[in-house]
């Protein structure tokens, strides 16, 4: 059920992080000659070693076990969930977190709360999908489809640890997010989920209506169709006030729950509406705050994640209550190249999810390339490299330059102005009711 009433919460105050303390973590180089603990060195009983045989085959897991003595790792519901927003860099965040040894996840995305096939398996299935973790580590998962489904916060509130779970919402320029989402639908939805089956409904709609025009022209027509659905066919957005836009959208969402076949029923998760509704951040955060508290929320600006990933990783570590192993000192910058802020995947837990931009990581000691994909839509000028913390036992790497869905693309100024006018009241609400941050820099 869609909740329209405002949640009664205090506006969040963004934490001002102090300068990085020197020598918080080493940046010693590893060059493929790490010596991992042997099974004989571990203090856990032999039956535990046999039970978790595959897990202990990974050297990093044996190192974690040795550091935790005779404590036996266990499975539990996640302590932290990255919810979205989609196309705002959630996978990039997950990749960076994979280099922090206190954060533990599993490859890919769980999609438990949003996909009927997974939801039908029950909470125990979700519990069992989580990785083995120790008590002082953070078990987490990332599924950006959780952000804009109004029924998901209520389902999450039924978790045994609901009062303690923490959420990271990554937010980015809503205009650019909408365009990137549109391009994602046009490309990724040509086949079924996980590459199995025929085209998905979003692609079929786009292919049927806009196959013979440019993506930019198709996006403009899609936006105009979404405006008609969200605001009313007779409404001109340029003649509407902020309050009128809010009221029209609120009325739109009241028709989400109508029975199938009912006149006026709306489909905010389907194209064309989805390209805009996914960027209504204040609307979706408001739903979460009817079930959870502000203290359980971290609102991460994707601009900072892209331009200063070290600071964003410090914010996440502070929020989760773990040491700041990854800071600004773990990154350096080559301004002679143009690149996205991207990062190699955790080679112990390769993310099997296909999304926005292609990444090539040079594995210099193996003289080979690892190719994978992830979401990263905000281009900057320069080339980031990272020296992972010594605790991760990883080599330094440089972030591959590549093309994101919306990089090197542009939209008509007038179209962007109209879309931004639509989003303006919701960005204001985001600032004044929830995050307490300022988003004037969202001006793509």
Automatic annotation (TrEMBL):
Organism: Oikopleura dioica
Segments forming domain Sulfotransferase: 78-343
Entry keyword set: Disulfide bond, Glycoprotein, Transferase
Top-level class of the enzyme under EC nomenclature: transferase
Active site: 87 (for sulfotransferase activity)
Name the record gives this protein: Sulfotransferase
Lineage: Eukaryota, Metazoa, Chordata, Tunicata, Appendicularia
Enzyme Commission (EC) number: 2.8.2.-
Disulfide bonds: 342-398
Keyword Glycoprotein among record annotations: yes
